[in-house]
């Protein structure tokens, strides 16, 4: 394929995609929304439960729309649907400045923002980057999706600064402007799929593979859906409860919040490191390693280990969530090709988002019923082992990188299947 560093266009697209994902759906509709929750609910005079429920509806709309948007990307290419989605997302976010004391309006605008955010998630950008890269695909996806981690760290801080300096209404306007600057401009000027003339130089990284209907009949696809949904249920669900969990153990709130910052940094490191490893080692093995990290984290959080071990456990959870979406994007390309990448990734990512929401709720209900997280942790640990087993049974790549086709070393990718 390419010599190191020769795919300059592809790397520029990966970096531009990372920049755009800083203001992605999760950063704006989840993490920034959490910062706005208290000041908005206080000023408008309704409980936090209303705002929290509206945020949930927003993410439900995004989860339901993502498979259909992914199919749209496969049929019409990424560029136009992505640009339209970004503009609508920026407009819907800006429109939040018009919120009033009507709960119906709150739910409507949050649902609209969730629907319009459908292009600003990893599916769009992973599809583009996957078509530009083959042998270095793992690292390229790691670079791209590190933008989500940067958004997780930076967007809440920027939101808090704007609310404190300008008020929450202008804060929403600031977020809308940020989406246009950080996402629309890179998507307009840099992000694109390879042309017909460029695709042959990708050595198979162009559009080839199984259709969505064919993949949906393959057990491997649903094994991957189950594995990543379980991972999201366990890891994301636990991270939502980490701060109260640590403070319950007597750790000061400031240190507990610092642990979440450490998890955010681990998320970025995990994505880059996992991407680099997947280009060199059979990716399901990498997936198991990054599921064992949060398993160790749960054991530390659930034990009586003294400070700082609970903080170490939180960082290990961050490593796991960091590798999750990278691995999902990489495995879809290796087992199903890129022909229906948008629909396959969009559907799988939809299940991941639903798993995230369900995990947080299930852990909260368990604590409310039992008064502790210990029993829940045992179940979560079993689920992570089950997810690891699902990855291990996937078998050899169906669409391996060309340089590895002659190899028979099972530690890399045993070539028992072909396309």
TrEMBL record:
Domain Major facilitator superfamily (MFS) profile: 13-404
A Pfam family this chain is assigned to: MFS_1
Keywords tagged on the record: Membrane, Transmembrane, Transmembrane helix
Identification of the protein by name: MFS transporter
GO molecular-function terms, A-Z: transmembrane transporter activity
Native source species: Roseomonas gilardii
Superkingdom of origin: Bacteria
Segments traversing the membrane: 51-70, 82-101, 107-126, 138-158, 170-191, 221-242, 254-274, 281-301, 307-332, 344-365, 377-399
Gene3D superfamilies: MFS general substrate transporter like domains
């Amino acid at each position: 394929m390419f010599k190191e560093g020769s795919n300059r266009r592809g790397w520029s697209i990966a970096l531009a995609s990372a920049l755009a994902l800083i203001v992605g759906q999760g950063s704006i509709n989840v993490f920034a929304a959490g910062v706005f929750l208290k000041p908005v609910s206080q000023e408008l005079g309704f409980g936090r439960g209303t705002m929290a429920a509206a945020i949930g509806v927003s993410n439900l709309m995004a989860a339901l729309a993502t498979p259909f948007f992914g199919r749209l990307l496969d049929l019409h290419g990424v560029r136009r649907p992505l640009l339209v989605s970004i503009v609508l997302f920026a407009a819907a976010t800006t429109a939040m400045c018009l919120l009033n004391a009507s709960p119906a309006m709150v739910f409507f605008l949050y649902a609209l923002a969730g629907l319009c955010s459908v292009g600003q998630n990893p599916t769009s950008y992973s599809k583009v980057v996957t078509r530009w890269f083959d042998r270095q695909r793992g690292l390229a996806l790691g670079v791209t999706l590190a933008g989500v981690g940067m958004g997780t760290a930076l967007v809440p801080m920027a939101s808090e600064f704007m609310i404190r300096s300008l008020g929450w209404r202008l804060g929403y306007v600031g977020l809308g402007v940020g989406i246009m600057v950080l996402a629309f401009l890179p998507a307009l000027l840099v992000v694109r799929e390879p042309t017909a003339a460029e695709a042959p130089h990708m050595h198979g990284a162009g559009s080839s593979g199984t259709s969505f209907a064919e993949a949906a009949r393959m057990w491997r696809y649903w094994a991957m859906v189950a594995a990543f949904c379980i991972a999201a249920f366990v890891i994301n669900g636990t991270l939502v409860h980490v701060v109260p969990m640590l403070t319950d153990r007597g750790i000061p709130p400031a240190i507990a919040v610092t642990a979440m910052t450490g998890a955010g940094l681990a998320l970025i490191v995990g994505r880059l490191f996992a991407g680099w490893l997947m280009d060199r080692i059979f990716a399901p093995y990498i997936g198991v390693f990054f599921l064992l990290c949060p398993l160790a984290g749960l054991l530390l959080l659930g034990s009586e280990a003294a400070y700082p071990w609970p903080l170490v456990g939180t960082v290990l959870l961050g490593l796991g969530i960091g590798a999750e979406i990278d691995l999902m994007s990489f495995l879809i390309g290796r087992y199903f090709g890129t022909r229906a990448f948008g629909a396959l990734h969009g559907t799988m990512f939809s299940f991941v988002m639903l798993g995230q929401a369900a995990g947080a709720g299930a852990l909260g209900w368990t604590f409310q019923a039992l008064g502790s997280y210990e029993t829940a942790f045992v179940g979560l640990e079993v689920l992570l082992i089950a997810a690891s087993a699902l990855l291990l049974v996937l078998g050899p790549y169906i669409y391996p990188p060309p340089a590895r086709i002659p190899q028979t070393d099972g530690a890399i990718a045993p070539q028992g299947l072909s396309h």
